[in-house]
Amino acid sequence: MLKIENLHVRVAGKEILKGISLEVRAGEMHAIMGPNGAGKSTLGNVLAGREGYEVTQGTVEYNGSNLLELEPEERAAEGVFLAFQYPVEIPGVNNTYFLRTALNAQRKRRGEAELDSMQFLKRVREKLAVLQLKDELLHRGVNEGFSGGEKKRNEIFQMALLEPNLAILDETDSGLDIDALKMVADGVNAMRAPQRAFLVITHYQRLLDYIVPDFVHVLADGRIVESGDKTLAHKLEEHGYAWIAERKLAGAA
Amino acid sequence: MASALLESLLDEDALRAAEAGVPAAAAAARHASAHAVLRDGLPRARDEAWKYTSLRALEQRRYANGDVDVATRAVDAGAFKLPGIDGARLVFVNGAFRADLSTLPVLDGLVTSFADDGAASLPLARDRDADSAESRAEAFVRLNVALAGPGLVLRVAAGVHIDEPVHLVFAGAAAEADVAWQLHALIEIGAGASLRLIEHHVAASANAHLGNLVAHYALAAGARLDLVQIQDAAAATTLIRRNGFRIDSDAMLSMHTIEAGAQTMRHDLCVDLAGRGARFVSRGVFALRGRQHADTHLVVTHAARDTASDIAWRGVADQRARGVFHGAITVAQGADGADAQLSNKNLLLSPQAEIDTQPALEIYADEVKAAHGATVGQLDERALFYLRSRGIPLDIARRVLVGAFCNAMFADLAPTPLRAHLEALLATRLPQAGAAA
Ligand SMILES: Nc1ncnc2c1ncn2[C@@H]1O[C@H](COP(=O)(O)OP(=O)(O)O)[C@@H](O)[C@H]1O
Ligand SMILES: [Mg+2]
Fold first, then answer.
1. Which residue numbers in chain B have pLDDT < 50?
2. Which positions in chain B touch A92 (Cβ < 8 Å)?
3. Total domains, chain A
4. Is residue A14 part of a domain?
5. Is the ipTM of this complex over 0.90?
C-alpha cells in the first residue's frame, strides 16, 4: 500500500529526514517510536502533503502511484488520513459543517454519491458513541474550546467517520489519561481491517499495550535505526532511547 | 480653478435653483457652502485624513446634478427586499424619495417628514479656516448642504419603542448620464426611546453614480439605536457617507456594518459620547476585491464620564483591492472612567491587495480602561492544511476560513433571517469556489 524509499526531507533549509525506507501493506499495523525531534511528525506531515517540506531525494508510492505529487485533499480522498499531534482550533467553522463538507468532498472526488444530512447524522451518531464524545461538541467550532483529550479523541472520531485506507496517528496518545487512551485504542481497533493500514507514531510504549503492532520501527535523527516486532517496543521501554543511540554508534563503527 | 467635478455640480443655474424657494437662512447656508467648496476644493492626498484615498480621478469627472427623471426609473423591489424585514420602508432612487416604492411608517410616536430647509438644520458643516485641510475635509458635507433636496427627518418620541426595523433604501439606477446625488437625513430618538434602523445601499441597475449621504443621529438620554448598515452599491459607483452621532447620557448605539459594494467608498463615522454613561458598540466588515477601494474613518470622542466604546472591525481584500481603516478614539479631559476598546483585524488574500489600518488612542482623562490593536495578515496556514487534510479542496477551505473570519463580527446578532442574509452577502464577495486560488 505504502512504499517509502530513501526519503530525504528538508524543512526550513535543514535536513530532517535523512533516508527513510518503509513498506506498509494493507492490514498491517506499524508503530513508529522515537525521541522528541527525531522527525516523526515530519514524516506524518510529508505523507499528508503539508507545504513547507521539501523532498530532496527518494520516493513515496501509495497504491502504486506517486503520493508526493498529490494535493493534500487528493490524498485524503485517496484514503490517507493524519491524526494531528496538535489538532488546530478553527473558531467560527461549525464542526458538523466541517465534517460533512469533508466527507462529501472526498466522496465527490471518488465519484460516490454525497450523503444527505440524515444519512450523515446517522453515521456521526454511530461513531461518536464509540469515542464517548458529547453531541454538543458537534455544534461548536472545529476543536474550539475542546480539552486536550477531547481534541485527540476528536481526531479518532474523524478517522472513524472518514474511513481512510491509511491512517497515520501522530502521538494521539500523548496527554491522555488511561480511560481516554483506552477509548482511542478501542476506536482504532474497531477500525482494523484487512484493507486498512495504520502508522502509529508514539513516544511511549504504553499505547502499544492496547493497540498491538505488527511492526515497530525506531526513528532517531531522521533515520529508521531499528525495526522489529512488538517486543522491540518493550526493549525500548526497558532500556530507553539511549540504548538505540549506542547501538547505532556501534553499528557505524 | 474649480475641478471638472465641481464645475459640473456647482454651476450658476444649479446654485440659483438650490437657493430658490427655501427659507432665507437655508439659502444663505447653501450659498456659503457652495462658495467654500469652490474656494477650497476637495481633500488632497497630502491631507492626513485622506492620505490613502485619492480623489484626483473623481475630480476629473463630470456628473449630472441629480436625476431629473428619477420618477421614471424602473426599480425592482427584489433589489432591496430583505428577508424578514417587512415594516416601514423608505426608498430613495438616485438620491430622490420614491413614494411609490415606499411604505411609510404608520406607527404612534414615529414621525417621518421631509425638511425643505436645505441642510441648515444639520450641525455638520463646520466653519474652518479657508484653504486648510480641515476646511477641505468638509467639502462633501458642504456639497450636500449646497445641493441636497428636502432632507429626511425621522423622529421617535420619548419613551416609544420601534421594534420592527425601519428600512432605508438607497438604490442607484442607470440614467442617461452618470448622476451625482446629495441626500441628508436627521434621525432623532427621544429620551428612553428605541429604534431599529437599516441603512441599505443597493444597485437597482448597473451605474457609475456619485452618491453623497450625510446623516446626523441624535440619541437623547437613555435612548437606544440598533443600526445595520449594508453597503452593496453598484460596482462602478463612488459613495461618500458621513454619519454623525451624538449620544447623550445612558444612551446606546449598536451598529453592524458591511462594506461590500462600490468602486470607491469613503465612510466617515463621527461618534460623540456626549453624556455620562453613553455607550457605542460597532461591528463591521469590509470585503473587497477587483480594484475596489474602501476607506472607513471612525472618530470617537469620549466627552463625558463613564462612557464606553467597543469597536471591532475586520477587513478582507482580494485581487487588487485596497482597504483603509482609521479608528481614532479620544478620551477628553474629565471623561474619567471611560472604557475604550478598538480592534481591527485584516486578511490579505492576494499579493496585490493592500490594507492600511491606523488605530489611534488619545487619553486626557483618569481611570480610563483602553485597549487597541490592529493586524494585517494572511490566512492561517495550519488551519488551511487541517481542512485540506480532511479532503476539503483548497478553494473551499479558503472560503470557509475567510467566511468564519468575517462572520465573527455578526456573532452577537440574533440568528434572524437578516443575519443569514448578511452572511450570505459576504459569501458572494469572498474568493469563489472553483476560481483559481
Ligand atoms: N516548520 C519547521 N521549521 C523548522 N524546523 C522544524 C519545523 N518542523 C520541524 N522542525 C524541526 O525538525 C525536527 C523534527 O521535528 P518533528 O518532526 O516535529 O519531530 P518529532 O515529531 O519526532 O518530535 C526538529 O528538530 C524540529 O525542530
Ligand atoms: Mg511530533
1. 120, 436-437
2. 403-405, 407-408, 411
3. 1
4. no
5. yes
